[in-house]
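Reagents: none. Just compute today. Glucosamine-6-phosphate deaminase.
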Amino acid sequence: MNVIVCENYDEMSAKAFEVMKEVVAKGNVVLGLATGSSPVGLYQCMIKDHEENGTSYKSIRTYNLDEYVGIDRDNAQSYYTFMKENLFDHIDIDPENTHVPYGNCKEDCEAYEAQLDKVSIDLQLLGIGRNGHIGFNEPGTSFDELTHIVDLTPSTIEANARFFDNDMNKVPKQAISMGIGTIMKSKKILLVASGKDKAEAVKAMVEGPVTTDMPASALQNHPDVTVVVDKEAAGLLT
Ligand code: F6R
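Predicted 3D structure written out:
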């Protein structure tokens, strides 16, 4: 694992953008993308670079990590909407080349995994949860798991209620997510994390034992991982 420690969130985003830009510059590549607050600064760098330098995404295809089950694509809280608002609507990517998983059953998962196998992801972008989750792969998930339907834990439902009128009943109870086995098939992985509430997970991911109790520790077994963190998230690294 190549760990790059930055001063703050903006520097982390700029550094991650350098890694992303190198891959995008090759053209005709496949990006695996994530939602959440961690990659937003990187997406802003991509948009700014597109606007100011004309970097084009016309030949780029994207596949997202995950999506809630049971809400419409155009729901304000869907990951599909998140991607449109935070990236796709602001660059020249062909909407037909963007893919966010959608579905609620085994067949939908298998179809997404089959698409991924056909294209093969050049760069997979990840955030990390405080408990070390990547995608919706919570502690205990097998490292061999492929795209699957996940039952959200009560704590995740509670944490996400703030996006759904503070009403836990409105929060989706399941998600469709690439598995750790899916993520590990990517040629290159870029993980971004900021803030001190990520410090324990970052330490366990980088320095801890490889265990399903810490899903991100699986990345120690991948040959090409770059972790870009700010000082606070790196705070417990030795
Ligand atoms: C997002 C995803 C999640 C997030 C993680 C960190 O598509 O799969 O694993 O990357 O929950 O979220 P933030 O960045 O909001 O702290």
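The pocket of fructose -6-phosphate is lined by residues 34-38, 65-66, 127-129, 133-136 (CB under 6 Å).
Action item: order primers for follow-up constructs.
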